[in-house]
Amino acid sequence: MRVLVVEDEINLAETLRRGLARHGAVVEVAHDGVDGLWLATERPFDVMVLDIMLPALNGYRLLQELRRREIWTPVLMLTAKDGEYDQADAFDLGADDYVTKPFSFLLLHARLRALVRRGGPARPTVLRAGGLSLDPARRRVERDGEEVTLTPREFALLEYLLRNCGDVVSKTDILTAVWDPAFDGDVNVVEVYIGYLRRKLDIPYGRNTIQTVRGVGYRLVDEV
Ligand code: CA
User: Fold this and answer.
1) Do 151 and 198 fall within a single domain?
2) CA dist 1 to 13, 74, 117, Å?
């Protein structure tokens, strides 16, 4: 198998390169995010080991950019328990698996083989309703065919509403799914963000896709 390792800790990268090569893999190593992205884009790999905290371009951004370019090489992310991102984030970011540092080489190798056997990830389905479309992989939102720029939080909120299209979701449901289960700030932050989405996606187009259900919550309707 052909493996790309993107890891800035030289010793760890070298340990991985030697270990994988010993098991017959063809390994290329990049020590920063920009080189990693270039290699991942220009050369074919069966699987990729991606650290998160990297110079030049972090693993998070690298993965986003890779998927935006529609490159579906399976990615195993290396996460640190005390890092800026944790394993839950790794999946949100489009990783196919993760291993928490420090890890055993045997575990990592087994996970990589499993990913290669499984093949590349299926391209995530574009969500559509009421003239809106959201492409989770390319991080792209369109209203009536026109691209609209959303902040990451607005994007996550819209994705949640689209996944629950037609159902009423409460502010608490939204907070848990889009913010954090442990969020203890003002629930009205949801209302504020619903307002942002309406101003970007509904009001300028004379639409009413994101509706308030008084006393209950919100519903995204698939109106024509
Ligand atoms: Ca690192």
Assistant:
1) yes
2) 17, 12, 10
- Taking a 5 Å cut-off on Cβ, the residues next to ion ligand 1 are 8, 51, 53
3-state secondary structure of 177: helix
Q: How far is the CA of 130 from the centre of ligand 1 (A)?
A: 42
Q: Which of 26, 28, 31, 25 is nearest to 62 (CA)?
A: 31
> Which residue, chain included where needed, has tokens 């935006």?
68
Q: What is the DSSP code (8-state) at residue 45?
A: -
Domain count, the chain: 2
The overall pTM is greater than 0.90: no
User: pLDDT tens digit string along 138-197?
Assistant: 789 999 999 999 998 999 999 999 989 999 999 988 988 888 767 777 888 999 999 999
DSSP, collapsed to helix, strand or coil, labels residue 155 as helix
CATH of the domain at 143: 1.10.10.10
Provide CB contacts within 8 A for 145, sequence distance 6+.
Answer: none
Q: Amino acid identity of 145?
A: G
Q: pLDDT digit string (tens) for 9-52?
A: 999 999 999 999 999 899 999 999 999 999 999 998 999 999 99
Distance, CA 54 to ligand 1 centroid (Å)?
Answer: 5
Q: How far is the CA of 8 from the centre of ligand 1 (A)?
A: 5
The boundaries of the domain holding residue 145 are: 127-220
7 within 8 A of 13, measured Cβ to Cβ: yes
Tokens representing residue 88 in the block: 């839950």
- 13 shares its domain with 95: yes
